[in-house]
Amino acid sequence: MEPIPETLAAIRELDPQPTGNLVAHLTRLANRAKAVVPDLVGVSLARLDEGLTFTMVATASEFAVLDAIQYVAGGPCVEGAMVGETREFVGDDPLDESRWQLFAQATAAQAVQSTLTLPILEEEQVLGTVNLYGASRQAFGGHHEQLAEIFGAWAAGAVTNADLSFTTRSEAQAAPRRVRERVVVEMAIGILAAQLRLDVDTAEDRLRDAARRGGVSTVELAEEVVRLHERRQPGDG
Description:
Elements: E1 2-3, H1 5-14, H2 19-36, E2 40-47, E3 52-57, H3 66-73, H4 79-82, E4 87-89, H5 101-108, E5 114-122, E6 125-134, H6 144-151, E7 159-160, H7 167-173, H8 175-196, H9 200-214, H10 218-236
Parallel strand pairs: 4-7
Antiparallel strand pairs: 1-3, 2-3, 2-6, 4-5, 5-6, 5-7
GO molecular function, one term: RNA binding
InterPro entries: ANTAR, GAF, GAF-like_dom_sf, WH-like_DNA-bd_sf
Domain ANTAR: 165-226
């Protein structure tokens, strides 16, 4: 399995030097899962606290049109993982709800016929999810425990067939932008901490509060703080 281009870009943004190590680790996990589930065609790992998703696919072109399905038909997505539950979708079951019908039929035509979402817990808090996508309806049957062990997830919280449209791939495509935004915010916090002689936590609170009061996003304000700082630098020396 291979990472989608945006996942590679996000990893490079996070740490330009040892990119191969993280890519190799994700590839190794995905390939171990594929050894358990031969019909596996996609894996997405999401960190809820950082808002980042990394996605591996059997072939990138295989899923090129899946992202648009969610906007046409809607669907269950992965809300189960957000509340720490495990849900599974099997091809015959989702049609019980008419609002899922177009969603399920359209995504099935693009090879994803079953999904499995496993929550990743730490001290009873859901930190992230592992989302797996299968090309057959029973791809994940009987494999919850094995897959949870591979990814360090919670098998009892598994959710099946909740993301047949592969919406996590869309999340992964946004990862590079989110990484860049986080870097800008961290730079701005550092600038404020140094200039105003604040600790980092107080500087962050000051930045976010000022953005809220000014009616702009934290990222927009952070970008302006960095621009102003860089503009002053040449004259400072």
